[in-house]
Amino acid sequence: MRALSVLCALGAWVCSGLALLLGLLWGLGLKCDDACSPNRGWRGDPDAWQWTALAGLGVVTFVAGCALVVFVWRRRPGWAALAVAVGGAAALALVNPITSTEWVDHLDRRSPVELLVMATAAFAPVLAVLFSIEPRDA
């Protein structure tokens, strides 16, 4: 079970790396790009602090993914669960402003790779924590 829990944690770690790249790309690079307009709120202002916050959320997600791998490897399921909670909250806060609100309605338009990444990001951290719990002898 330990190998399976570490494998799941590594899958979550890869997804957290993608979240890091996403946060850095949008937060420090693209920003509002060609769609800058004061009518769009902070999304239309390339100097808004929220863009830096997106980059920070990507970093927090990646650090939580690294912590998950370490805690699963060391068989600390409580700390691993905390890393999942922090990383999941940061990832949701990162993805929410970048994606449209209807992205779930259009899952049929996603490529198999996108669906695999979404499923891995959703289930691998939870499975890593569950598989890292050692059974107690009765």
Folded structure, characterized:
By secondary structure, the chain is mostly helical. The protein has one domain (2-132). Helices cover 70% and strands 0% of the residues. Helix 3 runs antiparallel to helix 4 (112-132).
In short:
The protein is mainly alpha-helical. It contains 4 helices and no strands.
Structural class: mainly alpha
Strand content: under 5%
Query: Largest sheet, if any?
Result: none
Shape: elongated
* Computed CA radius of gyration, to the nearest angstrom: 17 Å
What letter string, H or E per element, gives the SSE order?
HHHH
Helical residues, percent = over 70%
Count of strand segments: 0
Low-confidence stretches: none
Q: Which SSEs are present, and which pair or pack?
A:
Elements: H1 2-30, H2 49-73, H3 77-98, H4 112-132
Main attributes of the structure:
single chain; 138 residues; mainly alpha
